């Protein structure tokens, strides 16, 4: 028994760490941030309030929320010299490559003034990262498109500012549609944290050596990039493009069963039931497409057909394969006008608060030790060196 939840001894033996941040029940499809069900946060909260909750363990009072929002908005500019880093990349560099590089480079601007053992310094590092990662992501997109780098704007919400920094130009201010901004904010909430997933474990392992938080978050971004993890939403859109139309679904599904390809956006290491985020994402998808008059969007219809077929197919049922958070997110982002290349950067942007919350929880633990996964050695037995001249 740990707190409210009881685990079977077999599970306890496999657990790599303890945490108070996020609870997942993969069999029942439950996800709680600090005890609050994701469905309630997606409906009633906003992303910055969820950031406060993940970082501090409690929902903020009105004053705490106002102060937190102000602090994040106050740190969202980049040191002007950081803009030079973008110019070091080829124009066609993937935005995730740029994010890994530029977020890691923040170490050169803030690392030596940071004492990771000082709670206040840890808080400032968290503010800086939550505030600056959207600015970095937006600039990576603009640099890729040959647009002038942009700046955040006062008076906009976190999601509105991201859209503004992505799409406003000196000659045309991007008009933020509040329905789309709210949908994007909800997508940020759904991606904010997810327990010990691959990228969060990467951040914790990096942080356990005492590396600075900027370098640790850069490591998390690098891990998230993979198509089996954060890159899946980009892969779902590519998969839908390849399938093209509902008529091609049976042949595609045959390929899945013959293991020539996977059904991207399906399956999960933990969820053996519907990923609760996928259900909320599907509803958000519905709302956004209706708002934009795209409810006949062929990609959305194809995705729903794929989901319907898979959920009734013994191959998927036997393997407990259900839609995960990435299955519908790409369609929503596309409808909002976000290019495919920016899907994973948006996942990284939203997950930054989860990474920094886990880093903070670990660093604040006086009993923290450096991570050192052990292995089973299955290589050659002991043997003596053979001189080069004697080798055949
Ligand atoms: C994320 O960990 C997290 O929390 C991650 C995440 C987060 O918020 O941080 O939730 C975000 O990464 C979501 C997952 C996004 N990835 C994808 O959608 C890529 C497609 N999914 C797969 O690559 C796969 O499902 C994984 C990587 C997610 C999980 O892989 P596992 O653990 O190997 O899956 P499994 O053990 O449940 O597989 C059981 C069977 C196997 O077949 P058999 O050997 O039994 O015949 O199901 C098959 C698998 O090959 N299978 C799939 C499949 N996923 C698993 N077959 C077809 N399509 C798939 N998507």
UniProtKB/TrEMBL annotation:
Return the Pfam families for the record.
Citrate_synt
Report the pathway entry: Carbohydrate metabolism; tricarboxylic acid cycle; isocitrate from oxaloacetate: step 1/2
Please name the GO terms that the record assigns under molecular function. Answer: citrate synthase activity
Transmembrane regions listed in the UniProt entry:
327-350
**UniProt keyword list:** Acyltransferase, Membrane, Transferase, Transmembrane, Transmembrane helix, Tricarboxylic acid cycle
Q: Does the keyword Transferase apply?
A: yes
Q: Which residues form the signal peptide?
A: none
- Give the reactions, separated by semicolons, that this protein catalyses: oxaloacetate + acetyl-CoA + H2O = citrate + CoA + H(+)
Q: Which family does the record assign? A: Belongs to the citrate synthase family.
Listed name of the protein: Citrate synthase
Query: Native species of this protein?
Result: Parachitinimonas caeni
